[in-house]
Amino acid sequence: MSNHIYTNFHGILLYRKPYKEHDLLIKFLTAEAGKKMFFVRGAMKPRFKMTADILPFTYGEYSGNLSPNGLSYIISALDISHYNNISQNIDLNAYATYIMGLIDAAFPDSTPIFRWFNQLFYGLRLIDHGIDPAIITNIFEIQLLPVFGVAPQLKHCVICGRSDLPMDFSEIYGGLLCENHFSMDPRRMHFDKRTIYYLRKFSVINLKQIRSIKVHHQVKQNLRMLLDDIYKNEVGLNLKSKHFLDQMNRFHI
Ligand SMILES: [Zn+2]
Fold this sequence. Notes:
This protein is an alpha+beta fold. It has seven helices and eight strands, in the order βββββααααβββααα.
């Protein structure tokens, strides 16, 4: 590796996977080069010096070799931090893991996605600071839909374009229906005003600007039901981390 030129990069650790007896494969979402898989030789050995730098829910600045397509390497950690509350709380851990799984599923490796690096950085920070993780998760789910090729119309009525009337969501039409066109879909969601308000708001909200957010329980249930339908029927994603999250939430109730 003596000919490699090392570069500094910013990364959020997405996951770790044991490799052979003593090594690890770890995936970072980097600010500079998108998702990258790193090979860390000897990471599972007792005296490995970078153990704390590559724990789950770590982010920061590292130095290494970013390979254009193959495995990348880390040489040293320059300035790293941990999302401490997330790593110590199994609930927060489950939400954060699912969000990172969504981002991993949504984008190919080695494609710069700086906006999503920022969204993930601030999203995890909000969860770590005690903001409702179910809400932060909903925001990621809604904003990732266009990336998955499903782009519900949340700006105005899909039939007439009006946005000044009471609205409801229609799965068949893939977006909002205004009151004048409720009859077009008898199986529309029948959501209350607040649910529609948050559905629209979450589709455009910048996570960096959130300081606090409180949403009524019924709204949360409605959004959960709608997003589960859309992810199941239209996105077709089947993440282990989502099953775990669902199980965990059933267990709590
Ligand atoms: Zn209409």
